[in-house]
Design a protein that fits this description.
alpha/beta; 7-stranded mixed sheet
Length: 239
């Protein structure tokens, strides 16, 4: 492969999952590079990364998922990667589908391609209430920018050099996946999806659960509205 691909793996307290996640990626896609971004984990994640000699950034303070991924985008830009791929460290994203997400970017079809579990509706589909929330956010994004994306909270996504450079400078810091879709679409980038099959979290605890899901929905909904008011919409081009 003549294109440089970097897989960014955000990691916060993923001691149960991170080694299997990395080893599955290495076995399935040995041609790509990867970088784990350890977001100030309080468990043994950092020790595991060191003992396995994985390339990783060890953040001195917790930046959240958005800040951690943005560090990965900065790294990708500074080291000249053609494509950056975000892949979660909890084992949900199957590296067997990595090139399904990357290929539309390499082919110039999309600036950002999102791995969607809802196109073919196979594999783990998440809980009913989360699906309701995802559909709500999908509807909001379509209303605010006219872009229809089914799996708006998917963290399995690939970006080309221009999109990566944009996100290296402009990226939401908390739960950024829906906001990134809106921001990219309003800035004139081409956003699309590719079908993937996801797995259930392999261990540990998700950061979005119980009453926090309602808080997440309210917060992201408000953030999307604010983004729509603050980001200049570009017609036929990019910001």
């Amino acid at each position: 492969m003549d294109k440089k691909i970097l897989v960014i793996i955000p990691c916060y307290n993923e001691e149960d999952n991170i080694v299997n996640t990395v080893e599955n990626l290495r076995a399935t896609c040995p041609e790509v590079d990867f970088l784990v971004v350890n977001d100030c984990s309080t468990d043994s994640s950092a020790a595991l990364l060191k003992s396995h000699h994985y390339p990783f950034l060890d953040l001195p303070v917790n930046l959240g998922i958005g800040g951690g991924v943005q560090c990965g985008y900065l790294y990708a830009v500074r080291h000249g990667y053609d494509v950056a791929v975000q892949m979660d460290g909890d084992g949900q994203h199957d590296p067997a589908y990595l090139m399904e997400v990357v290929q539309p970017v390499l082919d110039g079809i999309y600036d950002m391609c999102i791995g969607s579990r809802f196109i073919k509706k196979e594999g783990f589909q998440t809980s009913f209430m989360r699906r309701v929330g995802i559909r709500w956010l999908s509807g909001m994004i379509r209303l605010l920018c006219g872009k229809r994306v089914l799996d708006v909270t998917s963290g399995f996504r690939a970006t080309n050099l221009a999109m990566t450079a944009y996100f290296a400078q402009h990226y939401a810091t908390d739960y950024p996946e829906p906001e990134a879709i809106l921001a990219a679409s309003l800035a004139g980038f081409r956003v699309g999806e590719a079908p993937v099959i996801m797995r259930e979290r392999q261990g540990g605890v998700s950061s979005i659960h119980s009453f926090k899901s309602a808080y997440y929905m309210i917060k992201v909904s408000l953030a999307l509205i604010i983004d729509r008011l603050s980001i200049r919409k570009v017609k036929g081009g990019r910001a």
